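User: I'm writing a tutorial on reading structure tokens. Could you give me a worked example: one chain, its sequence, then its tokens, then a sentence or two explaining what the tokens reveal?
Assistant: Sure. Here is the example chain.
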Amino acid sequence: MTRYIIRRILLAIPVILGILVVTFVIARSIPGDPCTAALGERATQAACEAFNARMGLDESIPVQLGIYMSNILRGDFGNSIRYSRPVSLFLVERLPVTIELGVAALLIAVAIGIPAGIISAVKRNSRVDVATMVGANIGVSMPVYWLGLMLAYVFAILLKDTPFWLPPSGRLTPGVIATPFYEVWGLNLNSGSMVERIADFFANLALFNSLISAQWEVFVDAIKHLILPAFALSTIPLAIIARITRSSMLDVLGAEYVRTARAKGLRERPVVLKHALRNALLPIVTVIGLQVGTLFAGAVLTETIFSFSGVGRALFDAITGRDFPVIQAFTVVIAIGYVAVNLIVDVSYAFIDPRIKLD
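And here are its predicted structure tokens:
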């Protein structure tokens, strides 16, 4: 298995490099000028020439690509054109927010989608089955931005004076301050060091940071702000997981070993969960891994609607502001994450079905 993992990692390198090159070219093909986006429409030609020279944009595309690739190999993503800050700081600040939102949405999709698919398969052609599949079709067809706006309207406005009120935007309520866990623990970290940036990365995971440092007010507030965007983002993956689970379970429930288990007098629950579900997991796990890409794509709209300062919002702002280094850095990080998730899915096959050998 170790050789398989190493081989997959090596095969992923040219894929990531290809994504980097394509993103580099497409970013520079976007209509508009970084100088105008940064300095305004009234920027003079002399100011733009000085700006492009300072940002390295006066070189040819192949030269810019070569410089960027060499910097990437050293772990340097460059500086933001729009904000003149290291892109690595944006990654530390924004990536944890999207990870937290994506994990919460995926947990909701799995926790609801798999049981819904199982119940729908067991009660095939019943009212429950029809209702579940109709709901799944609506979930797949419903635009994330429309659902997000409707959820914000219902829970933030219509239910304003009820216990079911939920905040429509932001990560934390103004005035609720999340202290980094290392400060709560009294740890002294060197300013600007790699250790401090890693610590800041985990500190920006609001739920994780508040949980391990016992900041319960922050923890509850962060959960309240996460519910609506996580649910809005989870609807499409939830619907797809439910449909795939139902289809896979229907194939397995008609197998001979399931009929044999029932003929032996086993109760229905062990038959469904132990014998049928385990053998139906491979396509379910596959589609869960594929939904990671859907979550990243949906995060752009979800974070914009709910004012979440994550990767999606940063990418949207970077594209509108022609901030090439930010666009490229976040795209590469998303690609690496997607490749890593698919590797985990492939490795999990061997644990789900011991007959599969990863050679």
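What the tokens reveal: The radius of gyration is 24 Å. The mean pLDDT is 84.
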